[in-house]
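Checklist before submission:
- one chain only
- standard amino acids only
- sequence pasted in full

Submission:
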Amino acid sequence: MNKLGLGAVTAAAAVYPFIEAQLHRLTTRVVPVHPDAPSLDVLHLSDTHLTGRSRRLTAFLGRLPQELEEPPDIVVSTGDMIDHDSGISPLLRALEGIEARHGCFYVHGSHDYYQAAGPSITKYFTGERGSGNSIPADIARLESGLRELGWTSLNNASVRIDAGGATVLLSGVDDPYIDRHRTGHIGRTRDDDAALALVHAPDVVSQWALHGFDLVMAGHTHGGQVRLPGAGALVTNCSLPSGLALGLQQVGDTWLHVSPGLGVGRFTPIRFNARPEATLLQLRPTHV
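Returned file contents:
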């Protein structure tokens, strides 16, 4: 390869991670659940990290209802909705058109509480946690807007809904990454036909697995954000094995779905082999 060709390849390799970060997509995953569970379609959104400049992502969120063709049964967001207060209004406008037959639910991530003040790459390798010198976000305005849109908070809370005659338990915790989670309310009864959980950082998945939940939905890891072929994620910012940091996996009899998320942080606007996505999870009863 001549110098011109090598230069072109190098330039493409340098630019591509910025391009991939904007290649938002909707994917579908089938989740086999126990024979007595209802069929449910759950749209899982996570880590939108919106700011006032996230125009491509807000446009994608606006198109989602058309891509879905019909409203899912449930919509969930597993945190880090914003990366800066300037993202609150675009987020709320983008969510206006997203509807569900039986409700929209959310939990928070650390970026919903704190606006990043600058890059902090080293923490992903040192395991450092907490808000550091970050600036508090306008969480009150964010939550007020979500309530006006009809979204229900599951931060350290549980609710039961009637989904076409089936009793579905939805349980969530606030972000474990910054130690805001409480787990005393987690529990499933014999009357629950299905049990779904929401959490931002997936580290505490075992809490729900021990209580027999069908599905736990999480975010936070961005799937590693940079994944090398054959090696996987360089870092996941999570205490779970890296193999559990992306996609649909089983933990005991419980399914765990860790979303790669849709956004990126303001100071790390790249992705490689970790394309951003919204995921339609189709829970389907199976007969063995």
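Reviewer check: The chain has a mean pLDDT of 92.
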